[in-house]
């Protein structure tokens, strides 16, 4: 595996170290062109040789920064070729920098810079053709611009420039496409992370609400029954025995609920998964509250126009459970409560009231998690929840859950 896909590693290294690669290749090309230009210039005077070497240096040295400063490199190379025209129809090896820079600008330059460089290249091909052929015919005193050889030369140079620009433009489109695909993949990955975090947070909130409903309700009943059994054990042991049985049954039911939640977290199929409570289990909930010593009046009116979703029924059940739990915890002794379910044409209305004391500080904006969780549950189904002290004493919780209109 060490030597697998070496071309990919080389390509990645070149892309990651483009400045170093440009400097090294540009320097090597510059030195080679200077050597060849100096060799050509030996047949002329020393001044001509130095001039050609300087022009060659101007035409090749900018290649060392062709991707870092492509437009500046293009302007310097263009100026170098304009100087070359002053020396007639000489052909220098450094002129190979023209197709290189045309390709580079097509890949990395801005769009207007790319087309401008293409225009420079085509104009340079025309001027080079004129310079070469007119310098060859100057001794005869003629001007042979429009001739077959002239056209062939111009077409050949223009074709080199056009092909270089075309390949560069194709490489540019591929680079932009790959960048767009990479950006899209990065954006999708970020969205997946955000969605996963939101789903995890939502699940944690859901589990926290379930745990609060189970633990708070069950422990309230257990504590109330245990206190009653402690006092009854002195005068009437039989009542204490019945009370302790209620404590035991409530504890076992809570343990089953806890095991169900933990089974969902562990995805353990062997753990018992009891069905979630619905409105049909409200009577059992009321009986448990009565067993805890709370007098509860239960009633309902109307009939459902359509069934509520299972989650909405669970929300209604948990709202009643939370409200009765608060009555047991905060209302004090000798408290009576009422639970009313009213089916209307719009949905289900719940009203839980008591005549106790001690709940005056409880509101939806308070510090308790129970009422907040109740409000959040109801809001998931586009419902409303209000909890506030009653005029004259006691506390009232009203909940409305509308039908889901498909």
SSE layout and pairings?
Blueprint (H helix, E strand, L loop, with lengths): L5 H11 L1 H24 L4 H15 L9 H16 L11 H12 L2 H27 L10 H88 L1 H30 L15 H10 L3 E7 L8 H21 L5 E8 L3 E8 L14 H12 L3 E6 L5 E8 L4
Parallel strand pairs: 1-2
Antiparallel strand pairs: 2-3, 3-5, 4-5
Number of separate helices = 11
Uncertain regions spanning at least 5 consecutive residues:
138-145, 268-272
Mean pLDDT metric? 78
Rg calc: 44 Å
Strand content: 5-15%
- CATH hierarchy, class of the domain at 279-402: Alpha Beta
Helix content: 55-70%
* Lateral strand order in the biggest sheet: 1-2-3-5-4
Q: Give the class from helix and strand content and strand pairing.
A: alpha+beta
CATH architecture of the domain at 279-402: 2-Layer Sandwich
CATH topology of the domain at 279-402: Heat Shock Protein 90
The topology string of helices and strands comes to HHHHHHHHHEHEEHEE
Largest β-sheet summary: 5 strands, mixed
Name the CATH superfamily assignment of the domain at 279-402: Histidine kinase-like ATPase, C-terminal domain
The separation of the N and C termini measures 57 Å
- Tell me how many strands there are: 5
Form type: rod-shaped
Protein name: histidine kinase
EC number: 2.7.13.3
Pfam families: DUF7134 (PF23539), HATPase_c (PF02518), HisKA_3 (PF07730)
Domain DUF7134: 11-175
């Amino acid at each position: 595996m060490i030597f697998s896909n070496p071309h990919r590693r080389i390509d990645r290294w070149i892309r990651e170290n483009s400045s170093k690669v440009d400097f090294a290749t540009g320097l090597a090309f510059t030195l080679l062109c200077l050597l060849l230009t100096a060799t050509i210039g030996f047949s002329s005077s020393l001044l001509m040789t130095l001039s050609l070497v300087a022009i060659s240096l101007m035409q090749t040295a900018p290649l060392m920064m062709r991707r870092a400063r492509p437009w500046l490199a293009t302007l310097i190379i263009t100026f170098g070729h304009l100087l070359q025209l002053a020396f007639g129809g000489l052909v220098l090896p450094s002129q190979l920098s023209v197709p290189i820079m045309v390709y580079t600008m097509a890949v990395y330059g801005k769009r207007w810079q790319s087309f401008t460089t293409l225009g420079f290249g085509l104009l340079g091909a025309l001027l080079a053709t004129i310079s070469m052929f007119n310098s060859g015919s100057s001794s005869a005193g003629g001007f042979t611009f429009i001739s077959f050889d002239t056209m062939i030369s111009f077409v050949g140079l223009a074709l080199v420039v056009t092909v270089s620009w075309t390949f560069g433009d194709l490489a540019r489109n591929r680079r932009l496409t790959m960048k767009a695909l990479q950006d899209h993949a990065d954006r999708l990955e970020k969205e997946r992370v955000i969605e996963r975090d939101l789903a995890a947070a939502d699940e944690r909130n859901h589990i926290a609400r379930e745990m609060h409903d189970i633990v708070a309700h069950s422990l309230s009943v257990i504590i109330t029954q245990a206190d009653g059994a402690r006092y009854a054990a002195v005068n009437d042991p039989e009542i204490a025995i019945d009370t302790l049985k209620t404590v035991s049954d409530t504890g076992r039911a809570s343990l089953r609920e806890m095991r169900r939640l933990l089974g969902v977290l562990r995805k353990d199929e062997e753990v018992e998964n009891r069905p979630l409570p619905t409105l049909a289990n409200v009577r059992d909930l009321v009986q448990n509250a009565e067993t805890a010593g709370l007098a509860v009046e239960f009633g309902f009116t109307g009939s459902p126009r359509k069934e509520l979703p299972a989650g909405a029924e669970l929300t209604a059940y948990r709202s009643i459970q939370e409200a009765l739990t608060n009555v047991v915890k905060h209302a004090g002794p000798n408290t009576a409560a009422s639970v009313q379910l009213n089916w209307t044409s719009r949905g289900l209305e719940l009203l839980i009231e008591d005549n106790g004391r001690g709940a005056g500080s409880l509101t939806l904006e308070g510090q308790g998690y129970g009422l907040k969780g109740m409000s959040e549950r109801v809001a998931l189904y586009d419902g409303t929840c209000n909890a506030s002290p009653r005029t004259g004493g006691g506390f009232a919780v009203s909940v409305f859950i509308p039908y889901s209109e498909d």
